[in-house]
TrEMBL record:
Keywords: Oxidoreductase. Transmembrane segments: none annotated. The lineage of its organism: Bacteria, Bacillati, Actinomycetota, Actinomycetes, Pseudonocardiales. Pfam families: adh_short_C2. It comes from Amycolatopsis tucumanensis. CDD domains: SDR_c (cd05233). Belongs to the short-chain dehydrogenases/reductases (SDR) family. PANTHER family: OXIDOREDUCTASE, SHORT-CHAIN DEHYDROGENASE/REDUCTASE FAMILY (AFU_ORTHOLOGUE AFUA_5G02870), SHORT-CHAIN DEHYDROGENASE_REDUCTASE FAMILY PROTEIN. Residues 11-182 form the Ketoreductase domain. This is SDR family oxidoreductase. SUPFAM superfamilies: NAD(P)-binding Rossmann-fold domains.
Amino acid sequence: MILDRFRVTGRVAVVTGAGRGIGAGAAVALAEAGADVVISSRTKTDLDAVAARVADAGRRAHVVPADLSDPAAAAALAQAAVGEFGRVDIVVNNVGGTYPRPLLETTPEFLEEAFRFNVSTAHALTTAAVPFMTDGGAVVNISSNMGRVAGRGFAAYGTAKAALAHYTRLAAYDLAPRIRVNAIAVGSVATSALEVVVNNPEIKGKMEADTPLRRLGEVEDIAAAIVYLASPAGSFVTGKVLEVDGGLQAPNLELGLPDL
């Protein structure tokens, strides 16, 4: 059965930024596909709620509250997975994000912080997990549509996500053939990060109108892509950036920053 190729039964996944949004959706989806999960974010109560959903899917979740802006904390999740489950098979580098800021207010320090939070943390966890991926494995990095299109105010965020996308291609070469590395360029998804947008009918309507599929993404849209890339269904895919963005070829959210 073709659907069996989407199963990850008996495997162990580490998901960062898993307290809510895409990370939480990824953890639950992987559990529904058969994996036990290590989930981490800052807030334990959020993680406990996700762990309950994982348990409802019949799998185990190991909760690790941590400040994942620190690459060392991200790297430690690999050992946590081995300590709890004895192995690592899947890594989902979801933690990241950076607030928009006009270019001339984007200091070198702000740019470096964006790079560390979006790229260095992914590298730290990936390199820590690889030695434990004795049966092979899959890494899925969560990049962004803003890593390939241009919009005002996104210099730090877009640059960091573009770096993560190319890091994916380079890491895939270094880790082939045993470990696959792919990324998802995520479009506008209705999560708490877009709460202001979702609750404003005018802005939401314009974003939907500017998206070819005429809607915002849902967490499950991204979670389904993660399961595909992490499972045997994606076994002939590595070094690729899958665009799950509703067909966007330009930003669908303008910040209204003026000309100089």
